[in-house]
Amino acid sequence: MGDFASFIAALQEQLPQTAVLLDSATLQRYAVDEMQPRAVIVPSSTDETAQVVALAHQYQVSLLPRGGGTHLGLGGVPKSLDAVIELTRLSRLLEHEAADLTCQAEAGITLAALQRQLATRGQRLALDPPHAEQATIGGILATNASGPRRLRYGTARDLVIGLRTIQADGEIARSGGRVVKNVAGYDLNKLYIGSLGTLAIIVEANFKLHPLPAAERTLLLTFPAVTDAMRLVSAVLGSVLTPTAIELLDGSAARAIATRTGLSLPANGYTLAFDFEGSLSAIHRQMDETRLLARQHGALMGEDLQGAEQEAFWEAVRAQTSGELTCKATMLITSIAAYLQFAEQLCRRLNLEMAAVAHAGSGIVYLELHPAEVSSELLEALRLLRQQAQEGKGSLVIERAPTALKRQIDVWGPVGSDFPLMQRIKQRFDPGGIFVKGRFVGGL
């Protein structure tokens, strides 16, 4: 335990312009897995952030970086929590080089705010995780959050070309570059992305961008059986078609999305949603070819979405992957159908409710389970769902769960053979344990 009182005194003396919140109501709002911080610190610049971290290092006070808070449910229960350092005041778009299709932004800007500014010059960042109005760039990178568009554009690790970070001793460091061709040396960007702020605090990021598409349309198809739906997915992926996203919804997920959007979606069977972008002529050609393949695989034709209905649909799909108890299973695309059949039978046997959404072209399945309260049936279901994913050379992470459940089960699952290397990296980057432990794999 560090000298917290001296840390706060030094902070208020040396950085009087930095907001330090100590009232109980605020601390309760910033609790992580029912653990309240002793202070919330809100710097307004990179230099201030670095000075806060340097003082935390000096007084051995633990810090947890926070953006909009949309992904704080990811990870295990913290071992201790002295202070939350919130980065939402670092919210500027610093540079936008439209000719180079790159930009540089501070970590506290929300994804939606960044997209609005980029759109004024006909460009966008091709990341689409849930809750874009609240999720900050720093939080998205720290959790490696993504969405349906990852099929075509990849994830944050594919779009980040440079980062500016605060190390555990308060030093400001850079990795990568500001344009794609300048990136050389060790790719530390990929190390920081997805590390939950356990190695460093991301304060700025450089991205490669994409032009806004001329048009976008969504094709909805329905299948009585998941096996037929996934056979169509394999056929499309093996063709010359280039969908931006392919999402698979079971009946429960379709009902929830229909309720949220007012759209008419089938409550039984499985729905496949294909998103296409580009010129209208190219979109129509791809949709016609997809329909032809779909008929060969027993599909029932559904609606074509565009405009506000399309936007509402995809927003609801993304939101469906962040329920009270949500598991993320990764596997081979060819294993998705059998895995969903196993999950349905298991939940039926254990009297649990399930809603499933899959990034069907990327091998990722999100399962939302109810009820989320700890029970022997729920623990058994999670154990068997993880075991089934592992037997198919995949994995299962519990991305969101009540704190009581997190205390009963490891949300990350068993560590792999590379865990000793991960421990050495943590020791090298944060030897004093300044960045909160307990949330990442193996308690790192």
UniProtKB/TrEMBL annotation:
Its cofactor is FAD. The keyword Oxidoreductase applies. It comes from the Bacteria. Keywords: FAD, Flavoprotein, Oxidoreductase. Residues 33-212 form the FAD-binding PCMH-type domain. PROSITE patterns: FAD_PCMH. One of its GO terms (molecular function) is FAD binding. InterPro entries: FAD-bd_oxidored_4_C, FAD-bd_PCMH, FAD-bd_PCMH-like_sf, FAD-bd_PCMH_sub2, FAD-linked_Oxase-like_C, Oxid_FAD_bind_N. Transmembrane segments: none annotated. It holds the Pfam family FAD_binding_4. This is Glycolate oxidase.
